[in-house]
Amino acid sequence: MLGYAAEWSWLVALWVYAYTTSGVVAVAILGLARTLPAAILSPALSTITDRLPRHRVRLGIPLGRASLVGPAALLIRTGL
Fold first, then answer.
1. DSSP secondary structure string, the chain?
2. Tens of pLDDT along 22-74?
């Protein structure tokens, strides 16, 4: 449950930042950039994850997100 709250908190903060810096178009681009890779890669990734143990997949997803969100937050904080 905490992972979901953290994900939505990050997403809302990112959308607010994008809206205040670049407007509605930036929020739309971020939404597309967030969902398009999942839509394209989900058929291939689902066959791979079906072969792995469930507990490893359920642990790997939050760790993967954290490894991407941390550097992104650092880049936003430094102004890049």
1. -HHHHHHHHHHHHHHHHHHHHH-HHHHHHHHHHHHHHHHHHHHHHHHHHHTS-HHHHHHHHHHHHHHHHHHHHHHHHHT-
2. 999 999 998 898 889 889 988 888 888 888 888 888 888 888 888 888 888 88
